[in-house]
Design brief:
The chain has five helices and seven strands; from the N terminus they run αβββαβαβαββα. With 179 residues, the chain is of the alpha/beta class. 27% of the residues are buried.
Length: 179
């Protein structure tokens, strides 16, 4: 009987070791799993497919419509003061580098098309303003607050992510590093 106890303890140790090993393997493989809906997009991720329309009715299919371009995806809302300041600065960047392959898409999150269209006409920006009235793109891209800006390379891979306001000089440096 004395031999039974050590064998039971040894079995427990082996089982605990196997469970620990399984957990370590699981934790190491989690970053390699593909991006899923609702997950925050990370640097190195490909853009998930999305279709939205602009305030003027043009349909934009992401990433198909952006192939071969450096892209700024800017998620925003009307009541966001830093969003209001950033967009004219982004328009200057767009005007300067559009011919070199820069595309900017400003995606309004959770607001009605008429309000977004009115706001966009006041801003007078030349890049597309897209409407995500039901916030589905925000959920797909893991956007929980605005502004959020992604900079994507010509292959459709996210290279930079900015939470909060994007300073124009920093945004310019990031774009130029990819053009």
């Amino acid at each position: 009987m004395k031999n039974c106890k050590p064998q039971i303890e040894n079995l427990r140790d082996k089982t605990a070791g196997r469970i620990t090993l399984a957990l370590v393997v699981l934790l190491l493989t989690l970053p390699a799993l593909p991006c899923t809906a609702g997950a925050t997009l990370r640097i190195g991720d490909l853009l998930p497919p999305l279709t939205l329309s602009s305030v003027d009715g043009t349909v934009i299919r992401i990433p198909e419509s952006l192939s071969g371009k450096v892209v700024i995806l800017h998620f925003w809302q009307i009541g966001c003061s830093s969003c209001r300041l950033e967009m004219p600065a982004m328009d200057h960047l767009y005007s300067a580098y559009r011919k070199k392959g820069l595309e900017i898409l400003a995606i309004n999150v959770g607001q009605k098309r008429d309000a977004v269209k009115s706001f966009a006409s006041d801003l007078k920006v030349s890049f597309p303003i897209l409407v995500d009235a039901d916030s589905k793109s925000a959920a797909l891209y893991g956007v929980t607050d605005v502004p959020r800006t992604y900079v994507i390379d010509r292959s459709g891979v996210i290279r930079y992510r900015m939470l909060g306001g994007a300073a124009p000089e920093i945004l310019k440096k990031l774009v130029l590093s990819l053009l």
